[in-house]
Structure to design on (300 residues):
């Protein structure tokens, strides 16, 4: 049976380079450190140090074992830190996985809203494609997932599904900026930065453009809506994006106009089928609902 105290003594000798320095670090006697190391060698069947007089030199086995012990101790220290936070009542931690179009816009706004309300939980947001987000949530590596519309499975449940309008974005000096609303016919032969055809929104817009007698001229494509907005601000053309990205575009000095089209942007909020969500998750989702209504209206 391995002794944690023996592992601590071994690691101290490895990191300090001597038994005396290890004894000082652990606040024990040198003989005590030597005995703990010998007991560890006996328990593992490994020769960990070559001894010449009062000097010890680590063996290859010691270096390999030290790497494993360090990894284990890092995990232990994280658990100890978590215990201390729980004791202080500060263990409000929310792990989120989300499609990039949401993690860089509305979810960042919700985090800022919570901070303004005086709530500062530890929130970690991982950006990933929908399939990866679903896997993270199913494995409980993320408590909440924000994905393209999905159905429930044996591993995940859908907490909410939302749809928001698409908006037409452009620079302030674009000709269409003078119009209060944009129609599909207004896009005729206009330079457009479009979504990649591999995205759900991009495929839907491509079908809509195919029905037009004079479709827009697609000059560039991008998978992510923030990239479309950036290219729009640099004068490459106009863009059609979700309402959340449109709000960010307006904040950066761009122009946003409603566009008359049936297509919209949808997403689902998912969680694992088993397990309960912490109170901070409920608070996050409540603020999210408020933001969805605000952003969808403000960009109109």
């Amino acid at each position: 049976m391995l002794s944690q105290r023996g592992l601590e003594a071994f690691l101290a000798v490895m990191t300090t380079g001597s038994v005396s320095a290890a004894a000082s670090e652990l606040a024990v006697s040198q003989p005590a450190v030597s005995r703990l190391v010998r007991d560890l060698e006996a328990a593992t069947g490994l020769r960990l140090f070559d001894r010449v007089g009062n000097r010890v030199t680590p063996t290859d086995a010691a270096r390999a074992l030290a790497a494993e012990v360090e990894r284990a101790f890092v995990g232990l220290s994280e658990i100890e830190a978590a215990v201390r936070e729980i004791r202080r009542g500060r263990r409000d931690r929310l792990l989120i996985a989300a499609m990039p179009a949401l993690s860089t816009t509305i979810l960042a706004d919700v985090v800022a809203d919570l901070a303004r309300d005086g709530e500062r939980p530890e929130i970690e947001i991982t950006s990933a494609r929908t399939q990866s987000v679903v896997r993270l949530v199913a494995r409980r590596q993320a408590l909440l997932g924000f994905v393209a519309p999905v159905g429930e499975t044996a591993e995940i449940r859908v907490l909410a599904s939302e749809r928001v309008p698409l908006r037409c974005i452009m620079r302030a000096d674009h000709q269409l900026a003078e119009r209060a609303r944009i129609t599909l016919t207004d896009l005729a032969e206009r330079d457009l930065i479009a979504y990649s055809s591999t995205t759900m929104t991009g495929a839907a817009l491509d079908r809509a453009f195919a029905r037009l007698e004079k479709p827009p001229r697609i000059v560039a494509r991008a998978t992510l809506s923030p990239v479309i907005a950036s290219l729009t601000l640099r004068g490459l053309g106009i863009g059609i994006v979700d309402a959340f990205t449109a709000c960010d575009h307006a904040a950066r000095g761009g122009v946003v106009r409603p566009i008359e089209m049936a297509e919209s942007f949808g997403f689902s909020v998912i969680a694992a089928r088993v397990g309960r969500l912490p109170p901070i998750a409920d608070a996050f989702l409540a603020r999210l609902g408020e933001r969805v209504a605000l952003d969808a209206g403000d960009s109109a």
Remarks:
- The radius of gyration is 29 Å.
